[in-house]
Amino acid sequence: MTSRTPEKPAPAKPCPQCGKPATARYRPFCSKRCADIDLGRWLSEDYVLPGNTNARAPEDDDNGL
């Protein structure tokens, strides 16, 4: 039988907003303030996912009617 050593937790990544160490409560952020800043950026559409903005959906076709 082999003995397993407990795995060490991954090192905490820094807060994506300010670079301070992240806390468990607000992970991946360090505080509610940084989490709210990020949420505000999503809601104001500052973050954009890449994609084709010129593509038309099939339901947009008139088919001459």
TrEMBL record:
Binding site for Zn(2+): 15, 18, 30, 34
SUPFAM superfamilies named in the record: Glucocorticoid receptor-like (DNA-binding domain)
Gene Ontology MF, one: DNA topoisomerase type II (double strand cut, ATP-hydrolyzing) inhibitor activity
Cofactor: Zn(2+)
Biological process (GO), any one: regulation of DNA-templated transcription
Cofactor notes: Binds 1 zinc ion.
Keywords assigned: Metal-binding, Zinc
InterPro entries documented for this protein: DNA_gyrase_inhibitor_YacG, Znf_NHR/GATA
Annotated spans, Disordered: 1-24
PANTHER family: DNA GYRASE INHIBITOR YACG
Subunit structure: Interacts with GyrB.
Function: Inhibits all the catalytic activities of DNA gyrase by preventing its interaction with DNA. Acts by binding directly to the C-terminal domain of GyrB, which probably disrupts DNA binding by the gyrase.
Family the entry assigns: Belongs to the DNA gyrase inhibitor YacG family.
Protein name from the UniProt record: DNA gyrase inhibitor YacG
Organism expressing this protein natively: Eilatimonas milleporae
UniProt lineage: Bacteria, Pseudomonadati, Pseudomonadota, Alphaproteobacteria, Kordiimonadales
UniProt gene name: yacG
